[in-house]
Amino acid sequence: MGVKRRANELLFMSSAVLLLLVSPNLVQCSSKDGEEEQVQRSQFPDGFFFGTSTSAYQVEGAYLDDGKSLSNWDVFSHIPGNIINNDNGDIADDHYHRYLEDIELLHSLGVTAYRFSISWTRILPRGKFGDVNPRGIMFYNNIIDNLLLRGIEPFVTICHLELPQILEDTYGGWLHPLIRDDFVHFAAICFKEFGDRVKYWATLNEPNHWADFAYLRGVYPPGHCSPPFGNCSAGNSDTEPLIALHNMLISHAIAADLYRKHFQVRQGGFIGIVVLAFMYEPLRDEWMDRDAVSRALAFTVAWALDPLVYGDYPPEMRHCIGLKLPRFSSKEKELLIRGSIDYIGINHYSTLYIKDCIHSTNCFSGGDRPIQGFVESTGERDGIPIGQPTGKARFYVVPRGMEKIIDYIKHRYNNMPMFVTENGYPSPIQENEQVEELLQDLNRVKFHKAYLSALASAVR
C-alpha cells in the first residue's frame, strides 16, 4: 500500500504543474502538435523556474487533526452523490504527516520551485470568529523551511478553492461582502507569519473557475446552480457567479493593498493572482465564430484579469450582460488598478473549439445565455477531436494552445510578467493498473515535452 501511494503521488504532483516562470518578453511562434518534442533546460533563460504544484485539500488529508476545522470541501465531499465514488480528501496523500518525504521527492526531481496553498481552516478554524491555530502555523513553517533548505523556492497560494465552512454557514461565503474582511484578515496573518521567507504570493487560485463551477454549474461547494446549467437546491446561475467573483476580486485588491503598504518593501516579495486559462479556436472558419472566440476569452480570462489591470470588467461582458454585471465604486477601482498584481498566474491545460450562439441555432448547455457570452464550446469538429483525448472530459492535448494563450495575455495586458502556475496531463483511468505501468507514464512525458517546447518557442 505504501509503495502504491508513493507512485501515485509522484505522478499526481508531476501532472499538476511542471513549469513556472515565463519571461515577460514573449513572441508568438508556431509548434507542430502530435510530434514528440525534445526539450532541454538550456532552451530556457537563466532564472526560469521549473516546479510542481499542489493544493492543500487535494494532498494534505488530516482533515480534523491539530485544531483544523471543517472546510467547504470537507462538508461538500461528505454529501453522498457530490463526488464520484463518494471520494473525499480526509486522507488524500497524507501530506500533513509525510511532507518531509514529499519534499525529498521534489528535491529528487530537481525542481527549483514548489507551489502549494495554505488551508484557511488550519490557520483560522473559525475565521475572524476565533483565534489563530499555532499548530497550523508550525506546519507551514516547517514546509517553507524545508523547501528553502533544499534550494526550492516556495510559491504560496493563500486561498485555493477552500474556505472555512463556518463562513459559508454564517453569511453565505463569497456571496456576501463580509467575506472580504475575513479574507484580508487571513491574508494578513499569512504575510506576517511567512512573508519573511515567501517571495511569491498568489491571493486566489482560479477565481473565474471557482465562480463558474461553484455558482453556475454547482459541482463545487456550495453547489449552487439553476436550470439549464443544473438542478441544485439553491442558486441562480445567471447572477451568483458574477457576485461571487466580484467579492473575490475586491478581496484580492484589499489584500494586495495591505501587502504593498505594510509588508512588500520590508519582505521584498511579489503578489499576483492565478486564473484558469483555456485557449479557444473557432469551430468554423467564419467571422461569427471568430468573434465568439473573443467573447469566450473575455468571459473566462478577461473576466478576472481586466478589473485588476484596467479597473473594470471587459466591455464584451458589459455588452452581453448589461446591468446584471456588478459595478466597482471609484475607491474599489483605485485599489484594483493601483498595481494590485505584480504578475499574472496562468493555469493552462487545454484548448477547445468555440461556436457562436448569437447568430447560430442549436446551442445547448446554456450557450444561448448572456452569462456564457452566447458561445458554446466543444472538443470536436465533425467528429474529430481537437487533440488527443485524456482521462478528463474536455481536456485534450493541444500544445499550440500554450503559445496562443500566452500571446493573448501578453497583448491584452501590456506584456506583464507571467507565471505558468499549472499545466498537466490527466491520465485515462485504467482498472487494475499496476505500479510498474503507472511508472511507465509515457503519455505524460510526451505531453510535457510538447507543452514545454511550445513554451520555449514562445520565450524565444
From TrEMBL:
Does the record's keyword annotation contain Signal? yes
Q: Which Pfam families match?
A: Glyco_hydro_1
Question: Which positions carry the signal peptide feature in this UniProt record?
Answer: 1-29
Source domain of life is: Eukaryota
Where does the chain cross the membrane?
none
* Keywords assigned by UniProt, alphabetized: Glycosidase, Hydrolase, Signal
What InterPro entries does its record include? GH, GH_1_N_CS, Glyco_hydro_1
UniProt GO molecular function = beta-glucosidase activity
GO biological process terms held by the UniProt record: carbohydrate metabolic process
Which PANTHER family does the record match to this protein?
BETA-GLUCOSIDASE 18-LIKE ISOFORM X1, GLYCOSYL HYDROLASE
- Family named by the database record: Belongs to the glycosyl hydrolase 1 family.
**The protein, known as:** Glycoside hydrolase
**What organism is listed for this UniProt entry?**
Trema orientale
